């Protein structure tokens, strides 16, 4: 999936959130020119001559023709048939440590790459207080209070000997929502915590983790990306992530003029404003969470929206995008009723669009022992 960009080993990818754009009816651009191979691969990945049991689906991380990986949540849905990335959310409670090992193992068994959204969550339930355990966890990480746990996790992932995309404390730039305690904290606290976790992994000589820095992609009133204030630095980031969600209620709150026709942003409108600035980091970009939930009167247009997204990443102007990971589940927070799940027809449309397209290389899943 890496077009051949210069990466440290672990590549980090983008996550884009709601963006303030004109309230026009969504348009779906034609694919246009198709991008070609560019950039360098992640240097630390084993070559085909190394004899390592690398997942066959990890080819998007290697040099060669330009490729884009499609991924989905590790929930066993139909998209897993063509998914090169399987996505898990895992918190920091002691009982969750085996989940890290299980996520890496299952991905390897399926010939996939595990992407772990590692949420620094200690409380069993969301705590809205400013002094709750999840609100203070980044400071505790920065102060070294959780080093033993971090080392244990590092050793578990090192033992997998497979490439793991680690998405630590994602969407840190979004406002605190009583559910994600690490949201909206001062950038310096986040940066110190991110670097501290990274440094412990380095001390443990973990060389198979790809560090994904994945902001929410917030824009200010002038359309300028604010997320870069939380950027840990090139030496700590391999890939950049972006969350891309189009939900009809959010669309109409941000742009009330959308209400009469229940219009919504196209994939390009949802991605481009944050992508422009994130691309300047010169890192591979992963659309780490992608979903669309349209007004009931326009639900039938969702398949078209998804296909337009796949067409968009073929364009040379978006050639830093190396993966699209669908958030194929209901919204996890009960303050919104959004449902990002794809219906059978929509999943079939995505799968059929990928088949036979060299950019997506969507053949049948191979076992990890097979030759790529």
Structural overview:
Strands 2-3-4-5-6-7-8-9 form an 8-stranded parallel β-barrel, surrounded by 4 helices. The longest helix has 17 residues, at 187-203. The protein has one domain: Glycosidases (TIM Barrel). The protein has 372 residues and is α/β, with parallel strands linked by helices. It has 8 helices and 9 strands. It is 24% helix and 15% strand.
- Model regions low in confidence, pLDDT < 50 over at least 5 residues: 1-34, 36-41, 43-53, 363-372
Question: What is the alpha-carbon Rg in Å?
Answer: 19 Å
| Count of runs of 4 or more consecutive helical residues | 8
What would you say the CATH architecture is?
Alpha-Beta Barrel
Strand order of the largest sheet: 2-3-4-5-6-7-8-9
Short description:
The chain has helices at 97-109, 137-142, 147-160, 187-203, 248-254, 267-278, 302-312, 344-354; strands at residues 12-14, 69-73, 85-90, 113-118, 164-168, 209-213, 239-247, 285-293, 321-326.
What's the arrangement of secondary structure elements?
Layout: E1 12-14, E2 69-73, E3 85-90, H1 97-109, E4 113-118, H2 137-142, H3 147-160, E5 164-168, H4 187-203, E6 209-213, E7 239-247, H5 248-254, H6 267-278, E8 285-293, H7 302-312, E9 321-326, H8 344-354
Parallel strand pairs: 1-7, 2-3, 2-9, 3-4, 4-5, 5-6, 6-7, 7-8, 8-9
